[in-house]
Amino acid sequence: MDEYTERDIMGLDRQGNYYSRHLSAMTGEQLHDKSDIAAELAWRDARIDELSGAIDQLLSKPYVTEADIQRARAAQNGNSKSKAKAKDK
User: Fold this and answer.
1) Are 18 and 12 in contact (CB under 8 A)?
2) Total domain count for the chain?
3) Do 20 and 45 belong to one domain?
4) Is 20 in the same domain as 54?
5) What is the dihedral of CA 69, 74, 80, 84, to 10 degrees?
6) Are 43 and 4 contained in the same domain?
7) pLDDT digits (tens, 9 = 90+) for 16-59
8) What domain range is 53 assigned to?
9) CA–CA separation, 76 vs 70, rounded Å?
10) Alpha-carbon distance 41 to 26, whole Å?
11) Are residues 41 and 84 in the same domain?
12) What distance in Å separates the CA atoms of residue 41 and residue 4, rounded to the nearest whole number?
């Protein structure tokens, strides 16, 4: 299967306005070049992998404590802030 195949953009919008929201954001942020778009997709892929790993780690424990949840939330918030800081530069 190709990594980039034709997508049901109307279906994606019905599910949660995914396509139109990203199209508007990319236009607003002037992400017109393939390189700019690839950089954003790469950052998101890395973030998804990081969060998936954190979920896997939590699920591998026999029980999850409130402290585990707080650490996961802190990591999530910290990474979101660092992306915003990087964008501001």
Assistant:
1) yes
2) 2
3) no
4) no
5) 170
6) no
7) 999 999 899 989 998 889 898 899 989 999 999 988 988 888 88
8) 32-88
9) 10
10) 11
11) yes
12) 12
Is the pLDDT at 88 greater than 50? The verdict is no
- Cα-based distances in Å from 69 to 7, 19, 54, 57, 58: 35, 31, 10, 11, 9
Are 24 and 50 part of one and the same domain?
A: no
Amino acid at 9: I
Q: How far apart are CA 5 and CA 51, in angstroms?
A: 25
Tokens of 6: 């034709």
pTM score, two decimals? 0.60
**Torsion sign, CA atoms 29, 32, 36, 40:** positive
Residue 84 has what pLDDT? 45
Query: 25 and 46: one domain?
Result: no
Give every CB contact of residue 26 below 8 A, 6+ residues apart in sequence.
32, 37, 40
